[in-house]
Design a protein that fits this description.
Strand content: under 5%
Keywords: Plasmid
Number of helices: 4
Radius of gyration: 36 Å
Length: 125
Amino acid sequence: MENQSLETEFAALDEQIRREAEKKMQAIRVVATAHKTLADTREEFARTDAANKKALTDAIADARSAGFTDSDLKRWQADDSKASRRGPQRRPRKSAQKEQSVTPANSGAVTASPESAGDKLAASA
């Protein structure tokens, strides 16, 4: 009788492990597919970029031989040492901005003055 309960327990554990493994396999397949797509896209871009750069270099060489100077062609030369577009700028977190911008002078805190509100009204009348 004890053997039967152990077999049932082992079968339940086996099923649980199989479900967990299948869930992990499904997740890793999605990750692997996304990674492959990204890598393939980057490789394709690199090939296209190299071909475009060669075409530009050849065209600039032809333009030089036609009489253009480097200063004439400067705006069309590709400078690989710097990015042509800048990425998004990171902004400090709002909580950090608030902590830095709140000072006693601009905190908006009401300070007590020696005169009361009633005294100010009486003086203005």
